[in-house]
Amino acid sequence: MNSSTMPDFRKMLADGAKVLDVRTREEYMDGHVPGSVNIPLDMVEARAFEIAEMGTDIIAVCRSGARSGAATEILRRAGIPVVNGGGWQDFMQRIS
Predict the structure, then answer these.
(1) pTM over the 0.85 mark
(2) pLDDT over 70 percentage in the chain
(3) In this structure, are residues 84 and 65 in contact, taking their beta carbons and an 8 Å threshold?
């Protein structure tokens, strides 16, 4: 994702977007975006209804961006507004 196509994550968060961390619970417990929701990638499809009920835009993050990309595709197919935020540590730098 280059800077010309990168969403304004700060604005999205200010407007109420939620961060969805799709790493494993263990990875999440080692560090995460404050206030993020942890639903591992292998549970995203089964819990899409729960994610949809968040009622806002979703920013998916993981370790490097691969799993969040996969989650983004799953959720988009389910009609849920979502963007790939990439790796959570890079995401934190972009919003600081």
Answers:
(1) yes
(2) 96
(3) yes
